[in-house]
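Renewal narrative, Specific Aim 1. Our central claim is that a sequence can be written position by position from structural information alone. The example that follows is taken directly from our test logs and has not been curated for this report. It begins with the structure tokens describing the chain, in the order in which they were read.
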């Protein structure tokens, strides 16, 4: 059974990069969102059991998405992928419930390792 995967980034180019970085043998049903409001709508529709989330976006940023997931108790496992490399950003997303933080540009091996470490996908 395929995993509902939601890729959230305001850059279409960045979303395409994430899609290309996914493990080739991972059975996923991919949805995409360009901002946090769209992301929450899709998570509520069951399209984001696993969410790959950018932080800096218009309308609602990644921090807002993480807060809403927690407040609404939505069933989503979130991995943040961001260019914001400040230690405070990483600490904040972890406090808000993110499973992991990956710095952009996305490293395919690092993503695969995190998915494996948390039992989301095994190679």
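The sequence written for that structure reads:
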């Amino acid at each position: 059974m395929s995993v509902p995967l939601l890729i959230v980034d305001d850059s279409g180019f960045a979303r395409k990069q994430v899609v290309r970085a996914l493990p080739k043998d991972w059975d996923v049903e991919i949805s995409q969102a360009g901002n946090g409001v769209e992301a929450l709508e899709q998570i509520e529709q069951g399209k984001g059991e696993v969410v790959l989330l950018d932080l800096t976006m218009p309308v609602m940023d990644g921090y807002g998405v993480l807060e809403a997931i927690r407040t609404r108790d939505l069933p989503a496992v979130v991995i943040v992928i961001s260019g914001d490399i400040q230690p405070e950003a990483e600490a904040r997303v972890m406090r808000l419930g993110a499973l992991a933080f990956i710095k952009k540009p996305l490293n395919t091996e690092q993503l695969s390792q995190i998915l494996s470490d948390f039992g989301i996908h095994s190679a």
